[in-house]
């Protein structure tokens, strides 16, 4: 991902952008409603919700501030056991949804990157933030953050603010992302902004490169960086991957891995971090053909889109099908549209609320000059709309940058079915004659002649034919020379071409895995009253796909028989590949349910007899009775998505009360029929005698009472 | 993983060790057979085999030298698509085998690590290699490598070497790992070793820290490093993880992630790299109880073991059960033995040849002083026996080091069922009297008194009672002082204790994933003659578990009907989660098989009719006919390990010739019976009419002919 502007970098600077996007992207509507947005009740509510989520996440070790016993390091977090499992599940689904389904070429490149690679991509020169330093203490701050804080604070708290001053501050917020170092310096001076902690004076803003620098090898002469994104590892391998793909376009390569950005002063907890997992796709395609073979599959998908024009004119995001967006020219091309659709399906399938994900098009001034079109998948959470996936048509910029820097041609070709006849200009300087005439300057003249464009060459040819000689400007000598007829032959020849060579374009969907996971936490979190109503209990409504643990196993009471059954079930869960947690503490069953709800475990097995057990679903709290030998495969069916809970409910008797023989017999009969239909062509009534095996004679209390 | 010696670090320095292990660990037998080992034919054979493997791996993009278009960087490699898939499969199985089956707590910590953490672990001070510099060019070399090269070269090539000189050189090789900087310097001087490329003089050896250094945050005042191992992230979280586990021991935490070592001059290709994936387990347990609840499961496992004593006395490694190894005291404890067994099962299940994996115990001088016992799982490949997994009982060293450095207590406790009465020594110095007597030295005297052991304290008490005063040595003052009776009270008191506090011990299995994968490549590689015998074809015999792609789909000839069937099958493979590669080129089917064999694809589906297809197994080259609608689920059955190929063979007609009705009917009948037995209790003959559906009427040529 090359750049000319800082903002053209992928999704980790954009968080700044999306924070300010409230101001930049909806200038009319938003600026006027700034105070409303910041109204105490609304932001307090969001803050309280976020705190509830964060408390649960930290208490249950979804994450841990890294090196906590040493006081922690800003912007570095560990995933604890459930967080780690959620992340592994999200990545596994990403692989299934993108790599496997699209037959992508996955690669795995190192984080340590030599300087030349990031010089070519533009990161060494341009991947910077503007920084100011406390002149006495040396503490560093991001210049735009200080200015933003000042403006927001004034607007919120200064009741005597004149209308003119307020408008001025709002304008600054709106253009914050576009301010140069000089403009930032001027504003900081104008407002008298000082260091927040000490009130000392600040230095002028200067660029700070956000890459972690290091040195490769012992000599100290090979500077390197920890990669700020994974994309470069794919670009430099284009030639190999193209060959691996049978020299065919389009194809996509993908990479999941760590990326590093040495943020000046990380804020916003889990959203702006110094090390994070990226999952990036580079879809290489012919710049003259950006259609997508599978576009029809997402054509009718309705997604919330926020095109550039709507942002500029103060309209809201609107629902539109991907097909319409492409055919109306809102989205630049089919392949870009295809990935917008696939990203939407990925996010919503994970559990992101479909009404709180939108695709926002970059404004013209947000995009790099070479980009054809860029869209961000933004997810709404308590911090606002957060960019979680960037989807950019980056044209041929990145591949060409590496070809130029390395001198290795990185091109694709299209073989013509029939050779095509083309007219080619042939310029043949006579080195002998030119040598005699220009001596040491011969080489420069030859190069200048060979570099002529078609028009210039044909004019020279005409002049030479008419006059026998002509004036010719040699730019490397910075003077005109006289070229004679015998010094160069210029002609047009017809040639047969068998193929077209070109630098491929790239469409790049780039996923910030940590941000997606954080938003997923917020979208999955809810509270509900405990049975006695005196407490709010936390629940994560993770789908089985995402849930860190699929199932818990509890013996109802501490007794050896039940514990053995629990262990037997645990073993069969392991065999079918279901992650579980066994809890043999004597804690009340209600408390144990509350604990697992807080981890988002979708199913709980309570061992309350030696022949059958209670299976409980987290959100509905419904409970059914299943045979000990069967329960692992039932949980497997549910977590694999083969059957929904509603279907399983039909198949087994409910637990809540002693079953009425008729009712349960009926549902049992229906379920048996369903099963049999799946297995054999005809069903019989032979199942009836097995009814006794179900052991529907155990405890009847509702187990959701907490303390 | 703390250290006092460089060698006490985990598995990435040990490669050096295992390279020299040939010399250090079997002093008698090996040194005398050194020339034999290095004989041209043997090493040439190994070299040729390695080259064949490496050529195939690089040509088929299992790996790519990183940043190849820029000339590459020593010690950095990319995994290309098949390599990346193999790695993902190995890691998925690792998670299943260790994390899931053992209910481990997996965490995911950043690579960027602040200095204090690695100061505590010992890496900042001790994680070094001795380096020499070319005095003119500045090129750096590892001192021990140069010395080793010199000795080996002399022994191999100098035919006039005296017996005495040869013995001297062999001795140097044997003790290479133990040489200090001064000893290395002396040897380099003695032998007149110069820089290999320039013959310039070399500097004296000096330590070079192998960690990639960087700086966290913009101020430059927070040094950090890229972690050299993942273990520290677990240790610093002990308190949180112990709590998460319900304050119960034993439990294990695990982490998979990148680690970084800035090697001075990496050699040996994929085995010694500057960035690599580690998978580490820290099993926390009570130092007073190192039994393992699941030890009985691996008790009778026979593994090749190479205990310390056998190495020292020149014996060979021998097969022994893990149970015997523990009961005979060869392996220190049950938990260590349990992990040896589990590691063995992991490696052999992946496809590592069971006869070429051994567990080598560390010699006493290889272990850190605090370690209770260490074993390396070494795998034999063309480079010799390579350490791929280290399994160490590291006692309480690491946890204690972080507790000391951070000041946060990192302890576990054992609650007694009944409170226990214990006699406790109570030393109460009188600060007032001591202050009057010792003024500014008071603090040192107080501390020295409090630090007394029981014996010393009781002796002092007796002396004070008898004489009224006594001499007392204060080590921090380095002198004796006179202590009077009123300056300290010493007594023994009976106290009730409800629990025992202790620092947990740690058993650490640490897996070098890249090394395991490389050895797996070598163990899986073989060649076989092409059908016409004029070429050797490469095959990787990967198990379905490991294979990068499970299945290929080929239309036999280029035709739209077959291509559509191929796409239909591809779609159903995706649905059941099987990775496949579709090849619709017009290449001969034999060539296409050869291509997929080289990628280690276990199964190939050739579309040669619209109703049924040919399914071919890679190693046996056997082919059967399966219905189009059925083939994805058959491949799924095979790759999930639910059925073996031999069983599937019974169920379907073979492809090689038109089936004789009787033979195939028989095998079909048997297979139907098997299936039915799985599904329902009784089988019928209703299947006969379906025989026609199998479409066994297509092409009969053998498809393994290559060109």
UniProtKB/TrEMBL annotation, chains A, B:
Enzyme class: ligase
Any single biological process term in GO: mitochondrial glycyl-tRNA aminoacylation
EC number of the protein: 6.1.1.14
InterPro entries with a match to the protein in the record: aa-tRNA-synt_IIb, aa-tRNA-synth_II, aa-tRNA-synth_II/BPL/LPL, Anticodon-bd, Anticodon-bd_dom_sf, Gly-tRNA_synthase/POLG2, GlyRS-like_core, tRNA-synt_gly
Matching CDD domains: GlyRS-like_core, GlyRS_anticodon
SUPFAM superfamilies: Class II aaRS ABD-related, Class II aaRS and biotin synthetases
Main location: cytoplasm
Catalytic activity reported: tRNA(Gly) + glycine + ATP = glycyl-tRNA(Gly) + AMP + diphosphate
Keywords recorded for this protein, A-Z: Aminoacyl-tRNA synthetase, ATP-binding, Cytoplasm, Ligase, Nucleotide-binding, Protein biosynthesis, Transferase
GO cellular component, one term: mitochondrion
Compartments where found: Cytoplasm
Keyword Nucleotide-binding: yes
UniProt entry tagged with the keyword NADP: no
Pfam families: HGTP_anticodon, tRNA-synt_2b
Single GO molecular function: glycine-tRNA ligase activity
Record domain Aminoacyl-transfer RNA synthetases class-II family profile: where: 51-544
Family: Belongs to the class-II aminoacyl-tRNA synthetase family.
Subunit description: Homodimer.
Protein name in UniProt: glycine--tRNA ligase
């Amino acid at each position: 991902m090359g750049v000319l502007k800082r903002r053209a970098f992928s999704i980790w600077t954009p968080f700044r952008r999306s924070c300010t996007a409230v101001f930049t992207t909806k200038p009319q509507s938003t600026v006027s409603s700034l105070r409303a947005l910041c109204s105490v009740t609304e932001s307090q509510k969001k803050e309280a919700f976020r705190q509830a989520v964060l408390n649960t996440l930290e208490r249950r070790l979804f994450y841990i501030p890294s090196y906590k016993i040493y006081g922690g390091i800003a912007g570095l977090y560990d995933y604890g056991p459930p967080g780690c499992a959620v992340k592994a599940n999200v990545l596994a689904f990403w692989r299934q949804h993108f790599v496997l389904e699209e037959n992508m070429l996955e690669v795995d490149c190192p984080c340590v990157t030599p300087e030349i690679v990031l010089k070519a991509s533009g990161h060494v020169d341009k991947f910077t933030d503007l920084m100011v330093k406390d002149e006495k203490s040396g503490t560093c701050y991001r210049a735009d953050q200080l200015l933003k804080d000042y403006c927001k604070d004034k607007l919120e708290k200064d009741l005597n603010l004149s209308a003119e001053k307020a408008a001025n501050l709002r304008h600054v917020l709106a253009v914050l992302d576009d301010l140069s170092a000089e403009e930032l310096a001027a504003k900081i001076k104008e407002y008298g902004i000082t260091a927040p902690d000490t009130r000392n004076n600040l230095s002028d803003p200067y660029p700070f490169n956000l890459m972690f620098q290091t040195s490769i090898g012992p000599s100290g002469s090979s500077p390197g960086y920890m990669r700020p994104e994974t994309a470069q590892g794919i670009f430099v391998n284009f030639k190999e991957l193209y060959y691996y793909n049978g020299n065919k376009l389009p194809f996509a390569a993908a990479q999941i891995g760590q990326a590093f950005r040495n943020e000046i002063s990380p804020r916003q907890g889990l959203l702006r971090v110094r090390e994070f997992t990226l999952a990036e796709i580079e879809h290489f395609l012919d710049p003259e053909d950006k259609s997508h073979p599978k576009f029809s599959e997402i054509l009718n998908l309705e997604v919330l889109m926020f095109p550039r024009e709507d942002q500029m004119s103060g309209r809201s995001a609107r629902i539109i099908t991907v097909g319409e967006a492409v055919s109306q020219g809102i989205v630049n091309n089919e392949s870009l549209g295809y990935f917008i659709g696939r990203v939407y399906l990925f996010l919503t399938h994970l559990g992101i609320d479909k009404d709180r994900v939108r695709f926002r098009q970059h404004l013209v001034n947000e995009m790099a000059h070479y980009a054809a079109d860029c869209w961000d998948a933004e997810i709404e959470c308590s911090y606002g709309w957060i960019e979680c996936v960037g989807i950019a048509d980056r044209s041929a910029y990145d591949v060409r940058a590496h070809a130029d820097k390395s001198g290795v041609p990185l091109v694709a070709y299209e073989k013509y079915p029939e050779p095509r006849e083309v007219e080619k200009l042939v310029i043949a300087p006579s080195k002998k004659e030119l040598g005699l005439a220009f001596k040491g300057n011969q080489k420069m003249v030859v190069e200048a002649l060979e570099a002529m464009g078609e028009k210039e060459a044909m004019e020279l040819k005409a002049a030479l034919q008419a006059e026998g000689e002509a004036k010719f400007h040699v730019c490397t000598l910075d003077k005109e020379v006289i070229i004679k007829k015998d010094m160069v032959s210029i002609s047009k020849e017809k040639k047969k071409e068998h193929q077209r060579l070109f630098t491929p374009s790239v469409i790049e969907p780039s996923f910030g895995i940590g941000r997606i996971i954080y938003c997923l936490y917020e979208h999955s979190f809810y509270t509900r009253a405990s049975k006695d109503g005196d407490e709010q209990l936390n629940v994560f409504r993770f789908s089985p796909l995402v849930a860190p643990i699929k199932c818990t196993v509890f013996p109802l009471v501490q007794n050896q028989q039940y514990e053995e059954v629990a262990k037997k079930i645990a073993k069969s869960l392991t065999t079918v590949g279901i992650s579980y947690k066994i809890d043999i503490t004597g804690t009340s069953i209600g408390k144990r349910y509350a604990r697992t709800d807080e981890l988002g475990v979708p199913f709980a097995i309570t061992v309350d007899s030696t022949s059958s057990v209670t299976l409980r679903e987290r959100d509905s709290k419904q409970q059914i009775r299943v045979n000990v030998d069967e329960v692992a495969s039932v949980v497997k069916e549910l977590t694999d998505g083969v059957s929904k809970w509603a279907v399983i409910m039909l198949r087994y008797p409910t637990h809540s009360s002693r079953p009425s023989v008729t009712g349960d017999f009926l549902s049992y009969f229906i379920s048996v029929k369903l099963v049999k239909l799946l297995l054999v062509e005809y069903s019989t009534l032979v199942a009836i005698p097995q009814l006794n095996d179900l052991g529907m004679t155990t405890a009847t209390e509702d187990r959701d009472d907490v303390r």
